[in-house]
Amino acid sequence: KSITKSHFLFIIFDHISIQCKLYFIFFIVIILSKFGKFSNSCLEVGPETMVIFELVYFSIKYDKMPVDKIASPIKFDEIKSIFNKNPFCWKNNIDYIYLLIMKNKYIVFEDRSFFEIKGEDKDTFLQGLITNDINKCTDKKSIYSAFLSPQGKFLADFFILKYENSYLFETPKLFLEELLKKLNNYKLRSKIDIVEKQSLTSLSILGSDEIFGKLDSLGSTIKIDDGYAFIDPRNKELGIKVIINKDTINFFAKKYDLIEEDINKYEEIRINNAIPDSIFDLKYNNSLILENNF
């Protein structure tokens, strides 16, 4: 089959880094600012040059360019003004454009379940059962913890955040049934209630940690209109965790200008930072958490 110019550009740009793509934009805009023409906030160029810009745009926005799609014309007024002010300040220009073009990305975790523990004895009940200090879980800080067998073997892991007058747990669906059964066994006469929350979902946002205001440390938590957001207590590189209602995901993404990312990107970050996945990396009622980077 014959390869069109657009396809050829797709092959090239799909194999270079975002930073290289930005340098390419930098050179093209500098050249066209001399020989091209800016009008109505858009760069007036020939169709082949516009194809280049459109392919670079797709490459940056989606990390992979669909060959069968072409983006709408890109507005360059902000980029042009940067070059006009300081055309030779390369690093600052590139860094600014990087922030200008890149959007925060979110991952939806379909395999998570939620439950709530409330009641006047909730603190003393949990303090003797989980591996973390429940007193560290406050309105401004969420924690990550685990539940072990009497022999110290791994049974479940979860995030805990302060949820109104209770504690909200996020745990993998695989562990939910057995975990609730064991917690109810330990309940005895404790004045607590354990309630499943089926309307919630879990997201992670990769990108800026200031999207909801300043979250400056592991577990830092903020109440947002749509739910709760907190820096992943395990490692800041894993982004901001968000818990919202399932039926508000699209509204939430549009409100905060987010685009959905493939779970593989999150997995790459997790593996690079040696963070275990409790479902795949730990053996139920067999693994010891201190041997698994908890």
What features would you highlight for this structure?
294 residues; alpha+beta; disordered N terminus
Describe this structure in words.
The relative contact order is 0.12. It is built from nine helices and 13 strands. Residues about 1-10, about 35-50, about 60-80 and about 90-100 have low confidence and may be disordered. It has about 290 residues and is α+β, with helices and mostly antiparallel strands.
Please estimate the helix content: 25-40%
Radius of gyration: 24 Å
Give the class from helix and strand content and strand pairing: alpha+beta
The tally of helices reads 9
Sketch the topology as an H/E string, one letter per element: HHEEHHHEEHEEEHEEEEEHEH
Let me know the largest β-sheet: 6 strands, mixed
End-to-end Cα distance, whole Å, is 53 Å
Shape: globular
Strand order of the largest sheet: 10-11-12-9-3-13
Number of E-state strands:
13
- What is the residue-averaged pLDDT? 77
Strand content: 15-25%
Low-confidence parts:
1-11, 34-52, 58-80, 90-100
Q: Brief overview, please?
A:
The protein is an alpha+beta fold. The protein has helices at 5-13, 18-35, 47-62, 77-85, 90-101, 122-127, 173-187, 249-255, 263-272; strands at 37-39, 42-44, 104-109, 112-118, 143-148, 154-163, 166-172, 193-196, 200-206, 221-224, 227-231, 240-245, 258-260.
